[in-house]
Amino acid sequence: MKISGEIRDAIVAHARRDHPDEACGIVAGAEGSDEPTRWVPMLNAARSATFFEFDSSELLALYRELDERDEVPVVIYHSHTSTQAYPSRTDIGLAMEPQAHYVLVSTRECGNGDGPVEFRSFRIVDGNVSEEDVELVGGTGTVRRDQEGTARHGS
Amino acid sequence: MAVEVRIPTILRTYTDGAKAVDGHGDTVAEVINDLESRHGGIKERLVEAGDLRRFINVYVNDEDVRFTGGVETPVKDGDTVVVLPAVAGG
Fold this sequence. Notes:
With 155 residues, chain A is of the alpha/beta class. In chain A, 27% of the residues lie in helices and 33% in strands.
């Protein structure tokens, strides 16, 4: 999986900030490109250290926006805050996008700070998990800090 | 009464790849039964024991049906029904 360093850093920063709750979001890209180019942090409606779920109305708005832009969720990410960056049984059971790269970030060591963080990528197809290499590339990615502010720190 | 039903990628195996199909009925439950008659197997992916599966979201004209009566939510001609699997995990 190839992803820009800038977007990778934005995902990690999101995970650190939301620790000890799980952070979640996607990176959209043009349909068929397999290139994650537009970072979209999402609200974890569960606000939980052990579970995440996109807010239902944000989910609808997101998929409508993706449709209008001919984009797909190339990357779907979330963080684990006390375990390794590997899909849990729940993650595997609920993975519904076989073409997506599932990125797991672990903040178990760094918490909200600058310590070590794990960032790994997986395919999850029909309950089977396969890890893939993450290649950081010079980026054309868009980091939407405005969206981040709205999504994470809104009322 | 015809409504447009938007089908998520993961369920398009039941609709020959179609992103949207027509559905008929006066409620979400009736529309799902109607879909099942032409796209066999799809109902089991959407409902369990007569209710929507926990990690399947259905919207009628942008309203999550969980807040409007679940599968008994009424639909009318020209409505859009969107099916989206939750993006969730642990």
